[in-house]
User: Fold these one by one.
Assistant:
Number 1:
Amino acid sequence: MNRQQLIQQIKEKQSFLCVGLDTDPKKMPGHIFDLHDPILEFNKAIIDATAPYCVAYKPNLAFYEAYGIHGMTAFKKTVRYLKENYPDHFIIADAKRGDIGNTSKMYARTFFEEYNVEALTVAPYMGEDSVTPFLEYEGKWVVLLALTSNKGSLDFQLTEDARGERLFEKVIKTSQNWGTTENMMYVVGATQGRMFEDIRRVAPEHFLLVPGVGAQGGSLEEVCKYGMIKDCGLLVNSSRGIIYASNGEDFAEVAGNKARELQQQMAEELKKAGVI
């Protein structure tokens, strides 16, 4: 999916919602375990209920890898289900890969050829040769970690060099020599608030993947105030706040309602910003 197609989906759906498929059997409703493949069936129900209100899905690989071959099979089948039934949705594999060049090439092949997702989260710490193999696939995206929402982000991401440039700013500036606004996004946590102003000074046109709205306490209104651009430029992710809103038999219906609530808020923000 290219940038213009993503923007078109945002405008048509009046939504920039990404639903995180952090599928944890310990949090799934009990009745789902009567089915043959509980993880897959849970995902399918969530997808069917939320698809009208979102433009993207973000399976977090940790929740699948933890269950070995069965979990990874469920991940692969989930991606296939999306491709077959909701082909206009953007799929981000949240795997945070990144290693020396040869290894990154294998990771890129895994996610862009074997699993055929649209985008992959990548860690930039090892530099250019660890990231560029992911950028060799036309129509695929790298989502580079920049300024995250976790407490430990303070340990490195906000440290300054002798000129006062913070590490996250250096990552964003340097990486723009590797990719473009057509194939690179940045992860910026919703809890960073007005820091989005600083992000936009160094990355005025790139899309931002924004986790942390909902269960982690990030403010959608604040994210939009400081981070939205004329083409929207945002994919705001919500995971737990949607998929675990209920642990009863109505879990999918409640998830759909939560997604619709966010979509309605997003539609208002898009109108305020003149995107739609």
Note: Strands lie at 17-21, 56-59, 90-97, 119-122, 141-147, 184-188, 208-210, 234-238.
Number 2:
Amino acid sequence: MDHPKITDYLITALAPIIWGSTYLVTTELLPSNSPLLASVIRALPAGLILLLIGRTLPTGIWWCRALVLGVLNIGAFFYFLFVAAYHLPGGIAALVMSFQPMLVLLLGLIVLKAPIHTNQLLACIIGAAGIAMLVLQSTIKLNMTGVLAGLAATLCMATGIVLSKHWGRPQGVSLLTLTGWQLTVGGLVLLPIALLTESLPTEITLLNGIGFSYLSLFGALVAYAIWFRGIERLPAATVSFISFGSPLTACILGFVFLNQSLSLMQSIGAIIIIIAIWLSQPKNKREPQSSLPKLDTPLSKMT
């Protein structure tokens, strides 16, 4: 595989930046207590649009793979993400999900046979610490429903990243078509559950419509096409670390639109998150041999 370009990192980073706005849009624009409805409307229209553009359906083993990826990356992930957003402040939900890179490293070792480097472990630790400094406040009381939903969303996303990297995409199928398969599957899986378990809102306001449209077109169609492109071009662990941009964006948007002030500690946390993303990147340069292990030395060679 060719070495990734700096543009690959920058383009991929746009996806978590867009997702970081989910917390703001959910709390300010969407109807309350309708996570399944929000998930369906976010995924299904975008998926159907891409299916109409691509006009290609899965074949063979890809029916099963599209189902698995659609549930992990879209259906289950969207649902748990919205439940977490409804029950936790956006920053706390992001903090819970900061454990995702650690899961990706472990799953990548098992599925992709990708060695874990010490710089990646260090990036996990300081990234989680940075997110804690960015979002934690002593006055916040944690809601266990939200915490468990955030952990479930984290597990779904981590598994989805690794399997997407492992399976790639079928020959002759465009990235947009593969994205459409997953968005459609995720939406269709959630649709009957939403109809059975949630009552529809009595009215949809203009603001609700704007929120749903934004999440479907940008939060799903655009962001996931960018995200899957990044998974193709970058190491799985690298893509996972880039997702740290989501809580950073959530806090910045809270500062700009909700008058949430950023303390010195939060500002330092934001800088630490950026350092963690930089530290996690693979080092391609050859360096002189040393008797001490380098930060990017696989752990297996340190024992």
Note: The chain is about 70% helix and 0% strand.
Number 3:
Amino acid sequence: MSNRSCSSLRADCESCFGLCCVALAFAASADFAINKAGGTPCPNLDSDFRCGIHQNLRQQGFKGCTVFDCFGAGQKVSQVTFGGKDWRSGQETAKKMFDVFPIMQQLHEMLWYLTEALSFEAARSIHEELRMKLKETEQLTRFAPDFLLNLDIPAYRSDVNVLLMRTSELIRAKSIGKRKGNRENKKPDLRRADFMGRKLSRANFNGANLRGACLIAADLRGADLRRADLIGADLRDADLSGADLSGSIFLTQVQINSAKGDGRTRLPESLYRPKHWRA
């Protein structure tokens, strides 16, 4: 995935009206210090739509904010969908803006996955289909608020997922037969597997299907996750120190931000090492 493609699908807070700080709800927990209802501005949001404690979010009990990424949906809603009109201009605008934001976030997340899928040479046989779906999804993000509010997002995600699954199968097939002792030449299908808190250091997940797997607080130090499909996998507080995730499939910055790691952790080129990771 090119740097240019990545930049357009990452949050640009300077061009957004603090939508994630207003539209979304959160509850007091290990991730947030307080309760906040959806549509209510966070008390830390300044009048210029900037976070007043941005540099100290984790220390102030707002770890959840440091994990969040809207995939660039915030600036799209602020500057394109609503043409630069912010939510303070009226109740009707505010309500529509807050309702459109999570829809746009999902569309932009799909754009991220489709763009990544096109970067894999192993999926070249379906690149034309991927390009068509990418173009279609990008066009959807430019429609008016009322159109977006009536869009059947679950159905559209399901349609996109068919292509993403085909992409995953083509890529993971490259790992077949590399695991010692695997006489059937099959890679493990671990969709939605529960590995919460499990000790999996140095585990070989090369080419595994880990879609939707629960890896919360799992010990994945030194694990091989190359060509592993990690779409929707929950990596909160998972220890990725020394793990190899280069070449992993459909991994997002949100997942990486929620995990633990160090200077030895290998990531795909499109993702960056979080500041809270160990050196």
Note: The chain has a mean pLDDT of 93.
Number 4:
Amino acid sequence: MTDDLTPKAQQTRRHILDTALDLFATQGYDATTMREIAGAADCSLGLAYRYFASKEAMVLALYGRMAAETAEQIAALPGDMPIAARFHTVMGARLKAAVPYRAALGALFGAAANPNSGIIMSGATVGDARDVALESFRQLVREAADAPRNGKIEYLASLLYSLHFLTILFWLYDRSAHQRATGDLLDFMRDSLATLRPMLIIPLVSSSLARLAGIMAMVFGGDSSEP
């Protein structure tokens, strides 16, 4: 846990991680070694291993950083916004905050496509960070102006959690000018969510979304079951 580290140790750990992300972005995840990371960070290999047992641990640390940032962004949302607007706002902020390590994320998602890389950017393996992110999306739904009954909060949160992963992946592949396609996608999801929200009172619509959330949860993680 980073909370157990002294401020100086936290700074050292952050420096090593940032150095690793720069190397992942410039020369690729697979091609980068722990020794190269330590050398670029101007620290011993032993010190690098003290903070990160492997490159995979660095990936999880990045995910943890992003989950914490998303939690802060959601906590800052005003309560008078509907679910669709809240998701649109937080995803815009999420992508803006991710710009500094966009290249690194691209390298990591690319490596994750290789089953032998040891990287899984979603699902149960991301552990505590996934739990933080899921709870944040529960908060996004629960505190919205149009929050549904408790029975629907869990699967909606799970669905939004999965959509946020897909949006980040789309953004990484987006080569349109100023990532205009991603902006259009965010607007489309906002409008679609706004249309679907009143329809949750229809059992068939509600059960279909719950089923979709369950399918996506098998890949992205989370508990989409209704109480």
Note: The mean pLDDT is 86.
